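Sequence in, structure out. Go.
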Amino acid sequence: MKHLDELTLMALAQNSLHEDDANKATLHIKNCSICSKKLQLIQATIAPQKPVEPSRDILSSLLEYYSKTELRNESILNAIYRFIQAYKRSLAFSAAILIIGIVIALISFKPDYKSIPHILYIAGKTNNNVTTQTINEGYRIILNEADSAILMANNDIKFRLAGGVDLTIEKSQYNRTIEKKKFQYILTNGIANIKSYSTHDTMHYEIKTPDAVILPLGTEFYINVSPDGTHIYIVEGNVMLKNATTSETIEAETGKLYTISKNEITSFDVEKYALQWVNDIDMSFEHLSDRMDLGEYSSLNSNINDNSGKESLQESRIEDVTMPDIDKETKILKNKNDNKDIKELHNDMHQLKQELKHKQGK
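Output:
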């Protein structure tokens, strides 16, 4: 006897066979025990499972646990609400006192800092006199075209300023909390040579111009601020340059000239002595340095004690000194653009002055 195949048995179990085929298969199964067992096995496999209903005890336990949890949460919320209602005036009063205390603390808090003075030496080319004065934060320096000046900031920063300079000391302070000095300057016009002697770890200073923000990190550089932009020549060290309009920021490289305008920062590879405005300021200070006694850096010794935070000022005034006028001969040589001869002239005058002092001492 030929047995039914598994597909036919599956279709018969699912009631998906044609009526005539289903009748034939049913008749065969009645007479074939093997096919009958296979059909029973297939029917048991595909039969739907009856859902298992939980017992009443399980349901009761779940409902009881849920009820207790809800009651507990409700009790906590009610307790908090009753506490707030009972002590709402006291709580409001305490909160008001806390807020007032915070406001008073913020208003009364003042940074623990000391003002750092500067000393300014001004030399007039017309009368060859040197005058000195102590200036502080907020002071504005405006030089005539014929004058030059040296500005010292606590032996940390040295400015050599040429004629026509407009410089404001915006900030000059020592924060005793963080043990760091902070200097900020605004240079709106003129030429300067700037050198710092302290590291960036103990001092932060920046120079603002109409076109740029300059952040030196212990360095020496020349700067020329004019209506056509800010020009900076880096002698040594690191300087961060930021365009005040576009916020573009770069780290300047030694031996390069940077021009910062309203829209861009451009750089040029150029020798220092190829820049006439750099030569001009160097030449103007060759004989100026001989006419003032700055000590190592300055005649003003403004030392900030990092431990006590106390500031001691010892100012030594420089008397007016009249020196031989060499500007006429310098101008003649300068017109010839002969820097070597100019330097030799200044050296000769310096040597002559030293010899005169030596003879007077005898």
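Check: The chain is about 35% helix and 35% strand. Confidence is low (pLDDT under 50) at residues 295-338.
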